[in-house]
Amino acid sequence: MELKIRNLRKDYGNFPALNGVNLDIRSGELIALLGPSGSGKTTLLRAIAGLESPDGGQIFFGDNDASRQSVQHRHVGFVFQHYALFRHMKVLDNIAFGMRHGQGPKQSEAVIRKRVLELLDLVQLNGLEGRYPAQLSGGQRQRVALARALAIEPKVLLLDEPFGALDAQVRKGLRRWLRQIHEETGHTTVFVTHDQEEAMELSDRVAVLHKGDLQQVGTPDEIYDSPATPFVYAFIGDSTSLPVTITNGAATFEGAPLSVGRVDPPDGPGRIHIRPQDVTLVAAGQGVVDGRIIGLRRSGPYRRADIAVGQHAHRIEALLPPELDVSIGDQFGLAFKRYAAFADDREPPKLGLAREKQAA
Ligand SMILES: Nc1ncnc2c1ncn2[C@@H]1O[C@H](COP(=O)(O)OP(=O)(O)OP(=O)(O)O)[C@@H](O)[C@H]1O
Fold first, then answer.
1. One MF term in GO for this entry (predicted)?
2. Which CATH class for the 3-225 domain?
C-alpha cells in the first residue's frame, strides 16, 4: 500500500510538532523516520495510524483519503517500544487477538491456530505458543508483538522504536532479522528511530525530521553523501565545520581566502562542513587552511586528531592512519577531499543550499 502525506500539521497549543510535512511512502518499502528527540517522529507515525488527529493536511492510503478514518478502518499493524502484550494471555492468544476480535470475517479456531504457528515460525519462536509474556526475554516479546501486528495482514506496518528498550547486542540481531522478515513479507513499513545507524542499516529510504520539518528524504547513501541541510550534515555521521563569509561564490575564513573553489550558497555568513575521513594532512601552506594538532586519540582502526585552525582556535577533526608519524603541536596544511558549504541557517532551514564537490 502506497501512502501520501500532504502538508500535514499538528500543533500542541502554540507548539508546531509537525510543520506541514509532505512525504510519499512507496508500496513495499521500509522507510525510517529519523530525528532527535522531539523532532515529531512519533507524532507523524501516530497520525498515519489514526491515533492522532492532525490540525491540517491529508493522509492518503493509496488513492483513498484516510485523514478522517478511524484507527480500525485504516487497518494498520503497530509495534511500540514498550511491548503491549496482554500479560494474562499466552503467546498464541496474543498473536490471535486481532484475528479473533478484529474487523475481518470470522475465522475458525483451526485456521487461526495454523496462522499463528506460521507466524511463530516466521519470527523464529517455534514452540513458544504456550508461554506467557513474563516467560519471554525482551527481544522475544518484541518478536511476538511483531507477529501480532502481522497477523491481521495490515495495509501498513508502523514500528515505533520497537527495539529501543533492548540492549545493543540484541538490537543489532533484531535489526537484521527485521530486514529479513521485511524481504519475506513485503509490507509497507514505517519505522521510527533516533538511532542513525539503525536507520541507515535497515531501511530503503530515510526521512530526516528536525523540529517538525522534514529536512530530507533519500536512500542511506544519498542522506550520507549529499546531505541537503546543515542539520542533516551534522546529524548523520561525524563532521566539524568552519565559519566562513561567502562573497560572489568565494569563501573567506577569518578574513583570508579559503581555497576550496567556488561555493554555491548566497552571499553572507555560512559554514564549510567536513567529515573527519575527508581531511588529509599536507605541508603547511599547501592545503585549504593551516592547523595545529592539539589532541590525538585512538578510534577503532584510526587515530582521531583534533586540529586547531585560525586565530580563534576553531576545531577540525581528522581520521588519520595510525602509522602516520604525527604528534601534538605539529603544524600542517589541511586538504579537504570533499566538503559541503551552507549559508547560515535562516529560519526555517531550506533544502537545496548544499554543494558537495571535490576540493580544488
Ligand atoms: N500530547 C502532547 N502534548 C503536548 N506536546 C506534545 C504531545 N505529544 C508530543 N508533544 C511534543 O511534540 C514534539 C514532538 O513529539 P514526538 O513525540 O513526535 O517527538 P519524537 O521525535 O518522537 O521524540 P522522541 O524520540 O523523544 O520520542 C515534542 O516537543 C513533544 O514534547
1. ATP hydrolysis activity
2. alpha beta
